[in-house]
Amino acid sequence: MSQPVATLTLEQLHDKDAIRELRYRYCRAVDTQDFKTIEACFIASATIDFGSAGKLDSRDALLDMMRTYAQNNSTIGLHTAHNPIIEFNSKTSASAHWVTQFTSYDPSTNTALKQSGTFVDQYIKTNEGWKITHCCYTILFHNSHSSNIGTPII
What we know:
Elements: H1 10-32, H2 35-41, E1 42-49, E2 55-56, H3 59-72, E3 76-90, E4 93-106, E5 111-126, E6 129-146
Parallel strand pairs: 1-6
Antiparallel strand pairs: 1-2, 3-4, 4-5, 5-6
């Protein structure tokens, strides 16, 4: 169970904010294909479980998968993360549960997708700040549709 805010130390409040910012930075980096920032969000030996989309055994495997996807798709995406529940396992270890939404538009097929799910992350505090050591994504639902209306504004 999450510790009440009134009993958290100033350092823990700062660390919670840093962990939230780490997840937000990851979401933005995925959407902008900023692979250097994605790399900085994870330790090298991080493990990633995307459920039916696959399991990855390192940060490099994640980056390879993302680069391949980016090269072969014209999809424009928007990842968001909400309602974190962050708990400390120690001064240098934490876990978090996130609700997440992903919306994408593929101009080549004029198809939009909306997907919602949860991330359960494990973190470690390093000399460079908090990093993701493991993340597990569980899809809750998704829907897609084609539309002849609208174009992306970018």
